[in-house]
Write a structure and sequence with these properties.
By secondary structure, the chain is of the alpha/beta class. It has one domain: Rossmann fold, CATH 3.40.50.720. Helices cover 48% and strands 15% of the residues. It is built from 9 helices and 9 strands. Strands 3-2-1-4-6-7-9 form a 7-stranded parallel β-sheet, sandwiched between helices. A two-stranded parallel sheet has the order 5-8. Helix 4 packs parallel to helix 5.
Length: 282
Amino acid sequence: MSYPATWFVTGTSRGLGLELVTQLLRRGDNVAATTRSVQRLDEALQDVDRSRLMTAQVDLTDEAAVAVAVEAATQRFGTIDVVVNNAGYGFLGAVEEVTDAEARQMFDVQVFGVWNVLRAVLPAMRERRGGHIINISSILGLTAFPGWGLYCAGKYALEGLTESLAAEVSGFGIDVHLVEPGYTRTDFLRTTSLGLPSNTIAGYEAIREMTDAHLKMPGTQLGDPVKAATAIISVAADGKAPLHQLLGSDSYGLAKARLDALAADIENGRDLTFSTDIAQNA
């Protein structure tokens, strides 16, 4: 990766995205930062040299608007070396409680918004046979908890999309990675970044209790956002990360438990699995 590199980062006005932009600017890299609130981003970056920063207020679900932002970044900096699809939000509610509108909004941001960015940046990366795409997933893209069904659905879709993409573009010299953080000490679990169902249903008291516990969690999470942002930079800079890069010891433990449970399921269902093959002639 050339230095200074040019980064295109989505979801940058708070949390992990803001920390990433801050570190990149302090490194001397060029940054095109998209956000839903340029004003909030500007206020957060008052103490940082912004001469290498381009900000854009972009609705990622608007394909044309995304294309305009990518073109503006290319015109400003020449090329886009690294794309970080970070924009997203959480949602806590039982599957039955999620409305059609809530489900579609989640997928619009976490899946179709990412797809809009990918369609906009890939042609130039293929042409020059180089580039790096980092999609910020979650440990909940690898495992699932009650109450997180909608969020997990979006992240599982992002995982499948990213794995396919990595195989498709490897021959063009484009690197692709998934980053899967655990609980990180940002405002992700505050109501500014966490959706809740518009209507709750009696009988899901356990989900309400878990929601209350999560809303009380900010400030106690294990993950350090400063170290997480540094780790994302290292994924792009050193070229040694695996396709799936976990962040946080909690993420590691949950992923290992998921692998063990999945292996057990596969083996426990083995007899029925093999029974559906077409019988071979003796």
